[in-house]
Amino acid sequence: MSNSKDVWRRVDDKAPAYFGLSDRIWHMPELNYQEVRSAAEHRAMLESEGFRVTTGVAGIPTAVIGEAGEGGPVIAIMGEFDALPGLSQEAGNATETPVEKGGNGHGCGHNMLGSASLLAAAAVKDYLAANGLKGRVRYYGCPAEEGGSAKGFMVRAGAFDDVDIALCWHPASFNGVNRAFSLACVEIEFTFSGRASHAAAAPHLGRSALDAVELMHIGVNYMREHMPSTARVHYAIINAGGIAPNVVQATATTRQLIRAATLSEMWELVARVKKIAEGAALMSETTVAIKQLSGDANLVGNRPLEEAMQANLLALGGPGFDAADHAFAAKFQETLSPQDIAAAYGRFDLKPKESEALSDEIYPLGAGNDTSVGSTDVGTVSWVVPTVQCRTACYAIGTPGHSWQLVAQGLAPAAHKGLALAAKAMAGVASDVLNDPALLKAAKDEFAAFRAKNPFANPITDDVEPPLDMAAH
After folding, report:
1. Which of 79, 92, 359, 379 would be 114's cystine partner, CB 3.0–4.6 Å?
2. d(C-alpha 230, C-alpha 371), whole Å
3. How far apart are CA 343 and CA 322, in angstroms?
4. Residue 238: phi, psi to the nearest 5?
5. Region of 363 on the Ramachandran plot (φ > 0 left; ψ -120 to 50 alpha; else beta)
6. What are the residue ranges of helices labelled H in 207-293?
7. Could you tell me the pLDDT band of residue 171, with boundaries at 50, 70 and 90?
8. Please, are residues 331 and 94 in contact by the beta-carbon 8 Å criterion?
9. Are the beta carbons of 314 and 341 closer than 8 angstroms?
């Protein structure tokens, strides 16, 4: 870890500026593909650090890459900065109090995520220069992780073709490198078209698109009994056909998010959902148009990189929370149920501890199970590049993801401490790879062996365009 300690010091030196970046992004929560101000903040930091900057990656206006160094292995460090709708919340307030009613909020901690990743990249950039090492570090500013799959579009455009390893992290309640498992997913819109008419005077002349949407939802709900236990299907009605109940709705749209443990399992489920939509159209005498918006592959692990990242975390220890951090987090635990807190421990196969508001421990390598997991577009990257990610504690144990409680903790000192730990862990792995060719070879050999047995097709096919307006609904 002697090499890592050098790059860790560089993280510490730069950290205050990146705490500021995280806080600024928190104050400007922007949704999928609309992160204009957030991307500009990241671009400005890259330029101030002296990175070579590329914008508009993969035809996405808010996707940005910064590169530094020459020759050698290429190390990608991935960041995100998109927010979620309806989660506006005052910072530090343990009572649900929106800053803006119906506004956006960083309910998944992506204000921290991108800032820590850029901090790690900046520290590695300086480490390369100071030590005269061959190698390149790239910061990937990736928009629209929350259902927009920007990394998948970037993979399809070739942005990762020459990358040797990829690093990332995510804010969490605990610290460590958990089992690499996520659900493959695809997001699809089903738009039904019928015939408008007066709902009272001539209902027999109408053909309701909203009826078709409701029939489709019923069919999907019946399907839930007959699909794998790890699979998930969620929906949102994007267009209900208007607000007038005395008009038979001529158009209506439902957006379906279909998830499964593997890509093949997911596509089988997609085919079934499409049949249900076609059946709903037949029953309602409407037509249906089907449009894929995005898609993510399931996550593929890489044991050599996971062991290297875990070793860095163990050498670093936890974030170093103090009494004030614990007291602050305890206020938010009071807003949670015992089930919330128990579930947080359960996701990592950890035994609950009484009176523990924040975690400073590093959990065992590979902790976690196949339940209560979501999807991430990091999964698509992991199919084309050896990839590793860690989690670090940034908020109270039990805080649900995508919640106002998480938003409220996003500016706290605990968030900054977790952010800094993640940056050090990623920068440490980067320095290990740069100084140890055997580690890089082991990571690439394991990846090659996996891919030899598992062919890959990007879940975002060539005919799917980045859904730049998906947040406009």
Report:
1. 79
2. 7
3. 25
4. -80, -35
5. beta
6. 209-223, 263-284
7. very high
8. yes
9. no
Please, where are the H alpha helices in 291-385? 303-316, 323-333, 338-347, 378-382
**CA–CA separation, 145 and 296 (whole Å):** 10
CA separation, residue 455 to residues 226, 259, 400 (Å):
27, 20, 35
Type and span of the H or E element at 231: none
Strands, E assignment, 164-269: 165-172, 184-193, 232-239, 251-260
Phi first, then psi: give them for residue 60, nearest 5 degrees.
-105, 115
* b/e per residue 262-280 (b: at least 16 CB within 10 A): ebebbbebbebbbebbeeb
**pLDDT score of 2 more than 60:** no
Q: For the chain, how many helices (H) and strands (E)?
A: 13, 10
What gap in Å lies between CA 110 and CA 442, rounded to an integer?
31
Report CA torsion sign: 339, 340, 344, 350: negative
Task: Read off the pLDDT of residues 184-231 as tens digits, 9 standing for 90 and up.
Answer: 999 999 999 999 999 999 999 999 999 999 999 999 999 999 999 999
Q: Based on the number of CB atoms within 10 Å of its own CB, is 430 exposed (0-12), middle (13-18) or buried (19 or more)? A: buried
Rounded distance between C-alpha atoms, residue 269 and residue 450, angstroms: 24
For the stretch 353-383, pLDDT in tens is 988 999 999 999 998 876 667 899 999 999 9
